[in-house]
Amino acid sequence: MLRYLYFDTYIANNTNISFLIKLPAIKDTWLFNCIEGSQFNFLNQGFKINNVSKIIIPSLHISSIAGLLGLLSTLNLIGRTKSLHLYAPIDLKYYLDLGKKYSKTNFSYILYIHVLKTGLIINQYGCRIYALDDHNCYQFFIIESAQSGTFYLYKAKNNYLLPGPLYGKLKKGFSFLFPDGFILNGSHFTSSNVLGYQISCLLSSFYTRKVFEGMYNARLILFM
Questions:
Q1: How far apart are CA 24 and CA 61, in angstroms?
Q2: Burial 35-70 (b: 16+ CB within 10 A, else e)
Q3: pLDDT in tens, 93-131
Q4: Is the dihedral of CA 54, 142, 133, 64 positive or negative?
């Protein structure tokens, strides 16, 4: 699980792994790579399987999808009703159709399959995920949005500014020009913005130039 990253740059070179992002503001969990034993790992870590809202599959190799049908079937058995979003290469649909036909199982929830392609695939809750097609295997770059700096309330009061919507505008860095030419600069009322983390998730340690350029500013590099 990736919740707190208190290091500058870290490389996790461990193949055949799954990892998840747990969003603190909501109960949703995003799962990357559904290896065999993913359900056991969820239970062992104390997470609820039903909170999984997105599953991202980088390739159709068995190591990436070995635990997928089992996880989807378990969600069906526990009576899941909310929809599930699956991001994967285009041919995964046929794999799921064959699996359901063989096991004679239909899911009780709606499963949305998003076909991966190079570019932005997810932009929610202050988190953006980009995919990069590298010979039918996808690499991912997770970028957290920058957080606004701390608003200095005492500076606003010293400038006789009344509480209201203006405070929010100043915190976001907006500037205001008064009729007498005086400029009220929002950057003077807040600390510096906190840059978001960038995580690179690579399927192989043999990467091309464009992959290397994408992970240049990453704080964490995972080889799946």
A1: 31
A2: beebbebbeeeebebbbbbbbbbbbbeebbbbbbbe
A3: 999 999 888 888 888 899 999 999 999 999 988 788 888
A4: negative
